[in-house]
């Protein structure tokens, strides 16, 4: 049996939690800029700039939930935190009555692992709680983009389709606008108050759910505080007397001290993502997170000196032999967990969710094991310049062809799955049925074998509460995670396009497709910095400069999201 803990701060990622926050996307027609977070139309025609004031008419009213009070409130864009034990007798009720009307709803969503059978005890209990017959069409999360493209290109679209932000490339945003319903009539303004848990979803997450000027998505909120953490073996550091580095030079010195290839110990895995943070590189390699204003000029991350410096420092780590050989395999490298636990390397960057995940994995067989998160540093030893993560990255969409009764049933599902931690609905959504899927031992919910098989990433994909970190089995980890987010969030800035959904004109969507592979080739010594400089030069001539003009016009007409 494996301890279970709730972490709604981030969803599964195509990099298996290597990068947590999905890309910003949106809608334009015919290459003419349209700030979809501020309006738009299904027709794809442009009738002038849609103002932020008009967006307020589209967004749901925000009504904070007072059902449960967190132990650690959100600060600097962090998740809220819970650090106490669970008492099932004191769980609150956040859905006063069953809102579902007994209809049938099909949902296609990415799934990591082996999907359970449809008639399993968890699905049955959830459907009974909601009052809706949800039928899951789970698809392999690792190849979901292929399935998604095929389904959206067909006439056979399920009632609900979950789309992670990292799968929103190419024609997907246009398909979202063309295929999915406007939920505004059901949720805009005070309409959302029919669904209190949806009303408690932060406005920024809803703003990310505006596509083509309409409210189309049901969001999975995420913290805006950074989520990529340099994780390290704190127990080994304490035993060996290693100091946590505060600059890139200190990291290199420490890495050389740790590394002993003959003893099969290396300092770290590929540190590229930490390098980007240390050098203040604008977040994300995905569209449109690469753009921001620098001294009044709109620039892309790949054009900056900081970007090249981060790649060069990461390359030097490989060249110095301090990076574990597995990292040379790149994207196909094996799960880092076993070799991290064995001490083959002591540091690796990953999503904050792995802080708890690795702790739980090792709790029984390796009680001395302790993973912790390093505070990020500026490359020169000063404070870091960090960039805020997007406030939502995974969305559920409703087929525009379904009846109103189906839309209402979908919203009934979402109102349950968005229940806050500490409620009966949250426990059912995230843990299943007590006695069948989990037991509670000394205030800690422990999943049974059946729970580990059935209570997986299904219902949580429809909608989620405000970003939450709660680990009753390891409350010190939840506290550490939230406090890390709060410290790092103090250094995080919002880019000019933060929180907005933007779809680039189709002719530009593939311009940076090869950047990430080139980054990895440079870091591993297979390519040179000059190759990236040449790529940037070609990128400009192939459309990068024209895309800059497009974003500049978007910014001039609609203003900065960060202002």
TrEMBL record:
The record's listing under InterPro entries reads: Bact_solute-bd_prot1, SBP, TAT_signal
Q: Which Gene3D superfamilies match?
A: Periplasmic binding protein-like II
Q: Which UniProt keywords apply?
A: Signal, Transport
- Report the locations given in the UniProt record: Cell envelope
Q: Which family does the UniProt entry place this protein in?
A: Belongs to the bacterial solute-binding protein 1 family.
The record's PANTHER family line, in alphabetical order, gives: ARABINOSE-BINDING PROTEIN-RELATED (PTHR43649), SN-GLYCEROL-3-PHOSPHATE-BINDING PERIPLASMIC PROTEIN UGPB (PTHR43649:SF31)
Question: What is the protein's name according to its record?
Answer: Extracellular solute-binding protein
């Amino acid at each position: 049996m494996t301890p279970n803990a709730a972490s709604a701060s981030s969803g599964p990622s195509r990099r298996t939690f290597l990068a947590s926050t999905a890309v910003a996307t949106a809608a334009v027609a015919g290459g003419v800029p349209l700030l979809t977070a501020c309006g738009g139309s299904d027709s794809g025609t442009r009738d002038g700039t849609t103002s932020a004031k008009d967006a307020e008419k589209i967004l749901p009213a925000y009504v904070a939930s007072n059902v449960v009070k967190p132990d650690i409130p959100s600060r600097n864009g962090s998740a809220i935190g819970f650090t106490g034990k669970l008492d099932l007798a004191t769980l609150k009720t956040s859905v006063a009555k069953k809102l579902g009307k007994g209809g049938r709803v099909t949902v296609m969503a990415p799934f990591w692992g082996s999907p359970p059978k449809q008639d399993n005890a968890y699905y049955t209990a959830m459907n009974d709680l909601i009052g809706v017959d949800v039928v899951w069409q789970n698809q392999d999360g690792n190849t979901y983009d292929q399935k998604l493209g095929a389904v959206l290109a067909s006439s056979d679209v399920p009632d609900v389709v979950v789309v992670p932000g990292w799968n929103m490339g190419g024609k997907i945003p246009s398909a979202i606008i063309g295929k999915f319903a406007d939920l505004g009539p059901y949720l805009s303004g005070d309409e959302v108050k029919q669904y209190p848990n949806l009303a408690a979803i932060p406005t920024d997450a809803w703003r990310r759910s505006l596509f083509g000027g309409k409210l189309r998505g049901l969001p999975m909120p995420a913290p805006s505080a950074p989520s990529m953490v340099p994780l390290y073996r704190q127990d080994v550091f304490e035993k060996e007397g290693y100091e946590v580095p505060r600059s890139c030079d200190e990291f290199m010195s420490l890495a050389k001290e740790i590394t002993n290839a003959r003893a099969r110990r290396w300092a770290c895995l590929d540190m590229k993502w930490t390098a980007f943070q240390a050098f203040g590189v604008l977040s994300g390699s995905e569209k449109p997170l690469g753009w921001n204003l620098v001294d009044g000029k709109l620039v892309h991350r790949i054009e900056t000196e900081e970007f090249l410096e981060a790649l060069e420092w990461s390359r030097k780590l490989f060249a110095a032999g301090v990076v574990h050989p597995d990292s040379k395999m790149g994207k196909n490298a094996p799960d880092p967990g076993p070799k991290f636990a064995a001490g083959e390397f002591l540091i690796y960057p990953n999503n904050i969710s792995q802080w708890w995940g690795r702790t739980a994995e090792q709790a029984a067989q390796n009680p001395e094991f302790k993973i912790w998160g390093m505070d990020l540093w500026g490359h020169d030893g000063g404070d870091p310049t960090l960039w805020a993560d997007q406030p939502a990255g995974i969305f559920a969409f409703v087929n525009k062809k379904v009846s109103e009764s189906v839309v209402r049933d979908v919203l009934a599902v979402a109102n349950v799955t968005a229940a806050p931690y500490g409620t009966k609905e949250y426990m059912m959504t995230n843990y299943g049925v007590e006695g069948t899927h989990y037991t509670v031992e000394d205030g800690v919910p422990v999943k049974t074998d059946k729970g580990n098989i059935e209570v997986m990433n299904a219902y949580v994909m429809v909608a989620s509460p405000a970003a939450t970190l709660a680990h009753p089995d390891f409350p010190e980890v939840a506290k550490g995670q939230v406090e890390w987010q709060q410290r790092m969030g103090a250094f995080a800035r919002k880019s000019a396009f933060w929180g907005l959904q933007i779809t680039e004109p189709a002719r530009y969507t593939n311009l940076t497709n090869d950047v990430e592979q080139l980054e990895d080739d440079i870091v591993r010594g297979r390519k040179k910095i000059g190759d990236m400089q040449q790529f940037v030069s070609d990128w400009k001539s192939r459309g990068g400069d024209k895309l800059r003009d497009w974003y500049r016009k978007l910014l001039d007409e609609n203003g900065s999201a960060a202002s």
